[in-house]
Structure formats: structure tokens, C-alpha cells
Amino acid sequence: MSGVSSMISKHTATPSGDTPALSIVIPFYNEAGNVDALLERLTAQMALIGGSFEIVGVDDGSRDATLAALIAACERVPEMRIVKLSRNFGKEAAMLAGIQEARGDRILLMDADLQHPPETIPAMLEVADRGVDVVYGARSNGRNDGWLRNTLSRQFYRIFASTAEMKIPADAGDFRLFSRRAADALRSLPETNRFMKGLYSWIGFSQESVPYDVGVRSSGSSKWPILKLFSYAWDGIISFSALPLRIWSVIGTVIATGALIYAMWIVISTLAFGRDIPGYATLASAIFFLGGLQLLSIGVLGEYIARIFAETKQRPIYIIEDIFGGTDDDGAK
Ligand code: UDP
Ligand code: MG
């Protein structure tokens, strides 16, 4: 591909050429300080493992020197290609772009910040050799994210499992090794709103975990402030379950039944005891209560409609601005 002619690729065909045994897909967003250390450890590990491999680095619209560092690294690491997205599309989109570009028989996803140790790769490959389609890294040393985050994330997994009727392993992240067919399944899913943690489980296939120790972020900072995590969790639940919609039918039924019984009580008590109806307070609180509930339910409805809106636009999930590195003509720079 030449110049900045943007390739809008939602389902690009796998480029022809030799297929390496392993494609390593890494999203980079403002990770300039990590590029060299990561590649050094990764290539050292791959030299030990042997076998053909490629590294697909996705620059997710970084605003620091990440791209320059990656391009410089291409000189040293001939197995590396860089896919530069036209802006920051988010980690999920960046990973998809990498999977889409990967040619290998197996595809490994890992973070750029060295929290996913390359030294775990041999153990993952071993499990994959047994025919397991998805091998995911499971954090063996917990998350070290502090009490609040830990509790919230535990609650999220619980709620997700009960609403989506599908379990996602709590200790797993995006450190994963896919067989070609599992990766193809993953990239065939057309939705724009991609909650990867859910999609990993949704595709099925045999899945097994391999424990690893999460490293501390080696440089830079996490891009996940707690508010963003909330919206991520909400996204996950909404995109995998219609339960938040159905809940309102239940609440509506309960309230309507209660209101009916109350109305009957008023009629009976008025007839039997001839009482006045001092109803102002009841009326006011009922109106406010129901008004609030209705707004809430409309809000939930809106969340789903917003997602339908996003999906119907059928926009590509990411846009590639440029590709660097690689040995074939179209990618060479
Ligand atoms: N990342 C990305 N686009 C983004 C945010 C993050 O490609 O918009 C990449 C980031 O460069 C890193 C990985 O996703 O390689 C994980 O990000 P981070 O370390 O911030 O997440 P955490 O480890 O805190 O979950
Ligand atoms: Mg990280």
C-alpha cells in the first residue's frame, strides 16, 4: 500500500506470501518508552522458541514518539510490520486491525507495556500444540489495582455472567493466543461495538488458561481511568444482554399490580367507611416516583437505540493511514 491513501478495511483478505507460524499483534498508544524494551525481550524470546514469526505493531494514533520508535525498530527487526491507524480508535479496534493484518497460523495478542511477559509465550504455545484453539493468559498474582477497582471488577464479572448467560473468566485479559480458525471467527463478527472480553468467549472453541505474573507497567500510564472502566462495563452488559430492557416489564407489572390493589382498597374503604380521601401526598409521590422510573427506562431504551444507530451506520471499525516495514512490495517504505 502506498502513501497515505487510506485503506478502509473491515474485512481485508489476508495478504498473500509465506505464512509465519506465529503472528504477534501488539497495539501501541503513546508507548514510546516501551517500544525498545518490549521488542528486545520479545525477539530474544522468539529466538529461543525458534520457528517463523511476525510482529504486527498497531500504532493507535499515538501522539508521542511511538511511531518513530516503531519505524526505527523495523530496521532492526525485519519480522516487524507497523500498521498506523489514522487516529486513536481505541484498543479493541487496534487489536482488530492487527488481527486483520496478521498472516500467521497462530495469532498472539499482547500489550505493549510489558505487563504481558513474553516469557510466558512458550507455555502458551505448548498448550496450543495440544490442539487448544484459544489459550488465554490468566493473572496469577491478582490485579494490584487497589480495593475499589478489584471489588468493582469482581461485581462486574458476576453481573455479566448472570445477565449475559455466558461466563467470561475474571482473571483473563487480552493476553491470548488464537488458532487461525478462532482468529478468523473473531474477525468475522461484524459489530462495530466490540466488547472483546465477551467476544472471546462468544466464539467458543476449546479454551484453556496459562498463568502469568502481571508485570508493572514499565513506562507511561494506564489509559483506563475509573470512569472509563464504568462505561466499558456498561457497554459489555448492554452488548451481550437484553436484560436491562426486560427489567422494566417486570417493574412495570409490579407497580401496576400494586396500584390496582391500592385503588381497590380506596374504593372499598370509601364505600365501607365513607371516608374522605386525603390523597395529595400519595398523588404527588406516586407521580414523581413513576415519572423517575419512566425516565430511567427511557434512558435504558436510549442506550440500546444508540447502539443500533452506531451499528446501522456501518462505519469501518478503524482506518489505516499507512503500513510500514515488511518485506513485500506493497508494504515496504
Ligand atoms: N491501547 C491502545 N489504544 C488505546 C488505549 C490503549 O492501543 O486507546 C494499548 C496500549 O498501548 C497497551 C494496551 O492497549 O498496549 C493496554 O493499555 P493499558 O496498559 O493502558 O491498559 P491496562 O493494562 O491498564 O488494562
Ligand atoms: Mg497495561
TrEMBL record:
Residues 23-185 form the Glycosyltransferase 2-like domain. It comes from the Bacteria. GO terms for cellular component: plasma membrane. InterPro entries: Glyco_trans_2-like, Glycosyltransferase_2, Nucleotide-diphossugar_trans. CDD domains: DPM1_like_bac. Keywords: Membrane, Transferase, Transmembrane, Transmembrane helix. GO terms for molecular function: transferase activity. The chain crosses the membrane at residues 247-268, 280-306. It holds the Pfam family Glycos_transf_2. The keyword Transmembrane helix applies. This is Glycosyl transferase family protein. It comes from Hyphomonas oceanitis SCH89. The lineage of its organism: Bacteria, Pseudomonadati, Pseudomonadota, Alphaproteobacteria, Hyphomonadales.
